[in-house]
Write a structure and sequence with these properties.
single chain; disordered N terminus; Thiol Ester Dehydrase, Chain A; 4 helices; alpha+beta; binds Palmitoyl-CoA
Length: about 160
């Protein structure tokens, strides 16, 4: 991944819309998430999961972590203007994530094959790596959303 000087475009990356379950300010579970673009590809940032996201008391819920991984992977693609959905998501938990713990994240495209892109997301705490996620994202046409009765409220989100 490039490590050229950071360009902060967090406003364009998160929130991508107000009612997003993970990043939207209207969500009661909004995750503290600040994503930045270090160069041409990939993103870096900070993430904090709090008491609203716990499973075992004091420890972030694995499902909440997976949602954050999906969000970060998606942000890598939307900043490139890719219209996609997540087809598959795997999350490896190397160590517990404590609620309130500030994590750093980095994410990049690992491979592109036809319509399929694999995005890797790594989360690390002060003691080192805690989570590695892989999202298989598939490019879709605008009709993927319009045939579901969804209009510009969705299609306009891509390419921001
Ligand atoms: C909605 C987003 C809003 C975003 C707003 C903008 C802002 C964004 C910010 C980011 C933050 C949010 C990021 C959330 C992102 C989601 O959460 S998206 C919502 C959850 N995901 C879905 O709803 C997807 C549901 N599934 C589907 O719609 C369809 O199965 C798919 C994925 C479009 C694929 O169907 P298809 O277009 O008919 O394509 P198909 O030929 O079946 O598959 C294409 C290729 O992918 C492979 N493939 C498909 N599924 C799989 C799988 N599960 N495992 C392995 N391979 C697979 C196929 O084998 C095939 O491979 P090749 O033969 O080409 O080698």
């Amino acid at each position: 991944m490039s490590t050229s000087p950071e360009t902060t475009i967090a406003g364009a990356l998160t929130p991508h819309h107000d009612r997003c379950f993970v990043c939207g300010p209207c969500s009661p579970a909004q995750v503290e998430l600040d994503l930045r673009c270090p160069g041409e590809e990939g993103i870096v940032g900070d993430v904090v999961l709090d008491a609203r996201h716990q499973g075992v008391p004091g420890i972030a819920h694995g499902g909440a972590i997976a949602a954050v991984v999906d969000e970060i992977a998606g942000s890598v693609l939307t900043r490139l203007g890719v219209r996609f959905v997540t087809a598959s998501l795997t999350t490896t938990y190397h160590a517990p994530v404590m609620t309130g713990e500030r994590l750093t994240c980095s994410a990049w495209i690992e491979s592109t094959v036809g319509r399929k892109r694999t995005v890797v997301v790594e989360l690390a705490g002060a003691a080192g790596r805690v989570v590695t996620g892989r999202a298989l994202c598939v490019d879709v046409p605008e009709e993927h959303f319009t045939r579901l009765g969804l209009g510009s409220e969705v299609t306009d989100l891509f390419g921001r």
